């Protein structure tokens, strides 16, 4: 995982990026969740603990700030903006929080808050969740970013959100934040100053501003659109990582496969609908629809075509 994450960080840097919106670490609890394919933890928080640390350290070793997500208790896409999740404190700490806590120990630069509600409050702007993160999990040197359009009020700034993404809804406009904080300016020790400080501290800790190949938001377009960041070495690494991740739960004499007779042909049957599942890449309309997914490729912001 560390080797893969380092390669990923190098590719992001080569594209002019200094922040990656990952890793995704929520523990699976809804089998049909559309983002389960993104979540490293699977159904086992211990797995998430191990993988997230290597991911964060690998990516940030290449001067790309990691954003662990989606905090917290984000377990389904259906009604994702209105579902209200209720989980007792012990279960949160023992089941759902360990991967996030591992990210903090690994020095992650940022957290992304989720769309869902927790105990009646939107996760983005929940003072209770922010307190659990800062005081309980020990996330001191970094910032909280919202998921896209997951902020519902300027009060989310007081609830711990430092960066409203993508920012075109006006909730974090300066005059509104002044109203939320009771201030009319952006004094260094005021609400806006504290928010900006957390963003800068997190990025600096990950060396995200160091030796950038372009100026983010200004002249990175050519690198992002036309730059080729992969390599034969990275493609081989991706294939090796995929092969290594295949697990046989029980081997009853099946492996290693044997030829019969020893000099004869080896034939293997592949069964199931997945063998002939259509690919979104085969359809131009699907390629142009960023939300389109298929059996092997999730739709939305986590979509990657090979």
Describe, in plain words, how this protein is organized in 3D:
The chain is α/β, with parallel strands linked by helices. The protein is built from ten helices and seven strands. It has helices spanning 2-14, 45-60, 89-96, 98-105, 127-136, 174-181, 191-205, 221-226, 232-244, 284-288, and strands at 19-20, 65-71, 84-85, 110-113, 117-118, 121-122, 143-146. The strands form two sheets. It has a four-stranded parallel beta sheet with strand order 1-2-4-7. Strands 3-5-6 form a three-stranded mixed beta sheet, with no helix packed on it. Helix 2 (45-60) runs parallel beside helix 4 (98-105). The radius of gyration is 22 Å and the shape is globular. It starts with a helix and ends in an 18-residue tail after the last helix.
Features:
alpha/beta, 3-stranded mixed β-sheet, 7 strands, 8% strand
């Amino acid at each position: 995982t560390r080797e893969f994450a380092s390669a990923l960080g190098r590719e992001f840097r080569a594209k002019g990026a200094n922040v990656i919106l990952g890793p995704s670490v929520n523990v699976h609890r809804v089998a049909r969740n559309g983002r389960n394919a993104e979540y490293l933890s699977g159904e086992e928080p211990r797995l998430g603990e191990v993988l997230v640390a290597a991911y964060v350290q690998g990516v940030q070793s290449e001067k790309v700030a990691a954003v662990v997500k989606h905090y917290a208790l984000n377990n389904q896409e259906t009604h994702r903006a209105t579902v209200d999740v209720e989980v007792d404190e012990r279960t949160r700490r023992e089941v759902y929080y360990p991967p996030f806590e591992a990210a903090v120990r690994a020095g992650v630069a940022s957290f992304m808050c989720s769309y869902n509600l927790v105990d009646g409050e939107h996760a983005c702007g929940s003072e209770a969740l922010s307190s659990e993160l800062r005081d309980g999990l020990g996330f001191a040197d970094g910032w909280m970013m919202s998921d896209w359009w997951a902020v519902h009020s300027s009060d989310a700034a007081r609830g711990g959100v430092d960066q409203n993404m993508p920012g075109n809804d006006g909730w974090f406009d300066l005059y509104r934040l002044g109203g939320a904080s009771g201030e009319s300016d952006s004094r260094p020790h005021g609400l806006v100053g504290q928010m900006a400080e957390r963003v800068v501290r997190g990025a600096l800790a990950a060396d995200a501003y160091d030796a950038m190949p372009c100026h983010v938001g200004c002249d990175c377009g050519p690198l992002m659109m036309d730059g080729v960041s992969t390599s034969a070495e990275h493609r081989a690494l991706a294939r090796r990582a995929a092969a290594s991740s295949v697990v046989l739960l029980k081997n009853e004499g099946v492996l290693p496969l044997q030829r019969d007779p020893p000099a004869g042909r080896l034939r293997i049957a592949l069964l199931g609908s997945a063998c002939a599942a259509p690919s979104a890449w085969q359809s131009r309309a699907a390629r142009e629809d960023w939300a389109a997914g298929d059996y092997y490729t999730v739709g939305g912001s986590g979509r990657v075509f090979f």
